[in-house]
Efflux transporter protein
Amino acid sequence: MMNMRLFRVLIILLLLFFQFSCKKPTTEMTEAEEHEEHEGHGEKQRVQISPQEMEEFDVEAAEALPGKLYITLNLPGEVVYDPDRFVHIVPRVPGIVRGVYKKAGDKVLKGDVMAVIDSKEFASAKSSYLAGIETVALAEATYDREKKLWDKNITSEREYLNAQTNLASSRIQLHESEHQLMSLGFSKEYVNELKHGTEDICRFEITSPFSGAVINKHITLGEKVNDEIPVFAVADISTVWVYLTVYQKDLKSVRVGQPVTIQEQQGQHSAKSRIDYVTPFVEESTRTSTARIILNNSEGDWRPGAFVTGEVIVDEFEVEIAVPRTALLVVQEKNVIFVKTEDGFEPRPVKTGRKDGESIEILSGLDRGEQYISRGGFTLKSELERSGLEGGGHAH
């Protein structure tokens, strides 16, 4: 009897063993299948977005195409006045200031009167010119009379030749007086009009030589000024220059004609131009050269004296696929790009390569010709994460 009981116990234990050993693999397979189903479900994540929503949230799509990446060099620099359009105005004659009509910051046009002075020297020059005109007129009348008498053999040859010499001498003196006035900044037309005018003979006008803005003013009503000290500074800042500092180690990379982006250090303004000139020598004290860039400043954004950075493109190369850096996002610790499919945009993992300040090379994960989100992908990422939370971890 004991043997039979032992035999039955053994049979029951064996049955239980086989039952549990068979159930365990079945459970593990089920868990594996569920895991595979979960992963497969994640790979089918999609985000739907309409054209109206793309416009509203500033989302842009683009086609995956070859592109260029650029090797750049950042150089420090400073905005300066165009030296050909900057002038210190010095009175051409000394005198007493009668009127001041412009101040620092005022806009001026070429020929605008900025100040008026009373000048004895100027009065003397004008008087000499006007007297010269009368002297020439008198000499011409005398010469004409003597010539007629000479032709009729009434006057002597000596008197005729004296009249001729006096006319030539008076014309020379008038010519000298005219050039003296023109050396004071007056045009030939203005000088010729003096003989018809009734203008104050002492009045000397200080005018702007070109259109621009008054940068500095150093003149006061009633003070005495001379022809050595500037009274105004005028600059045309519609165009400015930028001087970039080129270190000796970078001289081989920087050349005339290279594209350059000028960026204000506060980041408020940027502009594109090209290197116009590179000094052919190295400053002994700094061991640097200077690259010159000319900027259009018609809007007045660039202020002389401001520090800037110049990003110079020194080399470039082609890549099979290049996308803006704004297209690349991180989803679940992976670099992804939202790629268009038949039923929306999917976050597709990509492998990246070389990059520059604006673009990045895609080595795999995005094929040429595919549509992808180039900007505004954070909107899709947010929708993906929201849908995942609402769906218990899955986005549909």
Q: What stands out?
A: The mean pLDDT is 85. The radius of gyration is 44 Å. The chain is about 30% helix and 35% strand. Residues 2-43 form the longest helix (42 residues).
